[in-house]
Design brief:
Growth Hormone, Chain: A; two-stranded antiparallel sheet; transmembrane; mainly alpha; single chain; 595 residues; membrane
Length: 595
Amino acid sequence: MFTLLTRGIPSLKTRGFLKVKYPGSSDVYESLLEDSNSEDGKPKPPDVHIRMPRIVNACPPGSPSLRLALVVLSIGAASHFLLFLDSVVDNLLPAAMPFFLSVYETKENANHAWEMLVSSRIYGLAIGCFIAVLLSHQHGRKLPVVVGTILDVIGVILTLLITYVPHGVTVATMGRLINGIGQGMVQTAGSVMLSELPPLKKRGTVLATLTMWACMGELGGMTISLDEFFGTPELWQWAMGFPLLVLLPALYIICHAPESPRYLFLENRENEARKAMSYYQSPVDCKQSIEEILMEKQFTLQMVKEKVDENGNSSKKERDGLVTSIIERLKDGKFTRALLIALFVQTFVHLDDWLWISYSTQIFENFGLTSGKAQTASLIMSLPQAVISIALLGCFDNFDRRTLLIVPTILSVIFGFLAIVFSSPLLSNVLPLFVVIPILATFDLSVAAISGESAYAIVPELFLANDKVLGSAIVGIVQNGFGGVLTNCLLTALNKHGISNVLIPFVAMNTVYAVVNYKWLPETAGKTPQEISRHFSAEFPGTNVFLYLKHKSSTFLAYLRAKPVLVNVISFIVQLVCCMFLLDFGVNLYKSIGK
C-alpha cells in the first residue's frame, strides 16, 4: 500500500472522510481528512491521505487472444505432446535391441525389460493424476501444472542417461516414471485449467488442442527415430530427449501466467480473478464470462447445505479434508453419474492408440516389412491423424461432441474388423499384409484422432466447477492404470497370438463403446456446467436395481422358508459339488508332489 499526499484543498475545513473508488475495483477506500491550524493561527491546507492498493500482476500489454494461445499451447506441450515418448520407444525398439541384449542376454528378457520401460511412464501418469488432486485441493490449478512440468524435464533428463550410467535401464525406467507423474499432474490440472480460461464459445477448440498435441507428439516420435535422424544403435537414446526443446519454453510461459480466473472467483479472490480474466480474455468476453461464473457460484451455493447443530443453529462449514470431500462427492448422484460416464468415455477411447502407437513398428515387422520400412510405415501412418487433428481445430465447435465421438468409433470398428479378416489364413495369401495392415492402421488412427479430440473436450465439461479436478483425476488414474497394464502385456500377446486375435476384443469393445455413448452420453457443446448437470439424476446410480433385488431376495427367502425340503436338497447339492472339487484338487496335488 502507498499513501498519496495532497495539499491545497481550501474547501475542506473540517475533519471528515474522502471516499475514493479505485478503477477496475468494487472496493471503496476511505481516507481521513485532517484539518489543523498553522503556528500563526491561520488555517493551513489539509493533508488528504488516500490509501490505494498496490498494483500487482497488472495485465501486460498485448492481445489477450495471443496470451491465451501461448498458455494453452504450453499446457498441451507439457502434457499430451509427451505422447512423443510413447511413439518414439515404438520406433526405437530395433535400434535399442543390441544394447538391451548386451544387458539382458536373451531376447525374451530384453522384451520384458522394454515393456517395463514403456509401461512405467503410463503407471506414472496414474500417480500424477492423484498428486494433482492433493495439490489442487489446497493450491489451485497453476501450481500442479508448474510442478508437473518441472518433473517432465527431470524425467526426460534421467531417460537420456540410459546408456551412460550403471544400471542405466533402471535409471531410465525411473525417469519415465517421473515423467509420467509430471504429465499426469499437468494433464489433470491443466485440462481443468484449459476448460476455465477461454470464453464458452471457444472452450471446445481449446480442449481439442490436447489431442492435436498428442498427434503431433506421435508424429514427432516417429520422425525423430528414423535411421536418418536418431534411429541408430549409436544415437537412439538421444531421440528421447527431444521434448526438452518444447518443455523449457512451456515452463517459462506457464510460470508467468496467472492462475485460473474461475478458481480465483470460487476462492472469493475477486480482484485477482478480474485481473487474471483480463489477461486471458477480451473486455467483451470478460463481461460475459464473469456473469457466467457468478451464476455458477450462485448455483453452487444453492447446492451446498449448511450444517446445523443440535439447537438448530447453522454453523459455517470449514474446508473439509481431502478424503472427506471425496467421499461426500461420491455420495452425490450427480457427480457419480457424471464420473461413470467420463470414466467410460476416456478410458476406452484410445484402445486403437494403445496398440498402434506403442507397437506398430513391431506389428509391421511381423507382417514382413524390414526394420527400416516398418519405421517408415509407422511415420506415414501418423501423418494423416496429425493433419486431421490440426484441421479440425478450425471447426471443432461447429459440431456436436457426441457425433465426433460416436461416428469415428463406428469407423474404427469397421477398420479393425477388416484387419482381422485380411490377416486370417484364408486371405493372408491373397493380399500382401505388409501393405494392407499399415493402410488400415492409418485409417484407424485417423478416426481415433477425431474421437480423441471429442473425448478430451467432453470429460472436463461433464463436471461442475468444484468437481472438475477430482473428476478429471479419477478418470486419469483409471485410464492410465488400464493403459499401463495393457501396454505391459501387448508386445508379448502380439508375438504369441498374432494381430488378428488381439484385435478381436478391441473391435468388440469399440462396438460397446459406440452403443453406450449413444444411449447415455449427454451433449456438452455450447452448454454451461449447470445445463449439463441437469442431465444427471441426484439419485445414486444403481439404487433402483438394489431395491428391486432386495425385494426379490426377500420374496425368495420367504419362499424357501416355506419349503424346508427344497432348502435341504439345494444344500446337499452344494455340499456334494464342494466335496468333489476338493477331492479332485487333492488328487492333482498328490500327483504333482509325487512327480
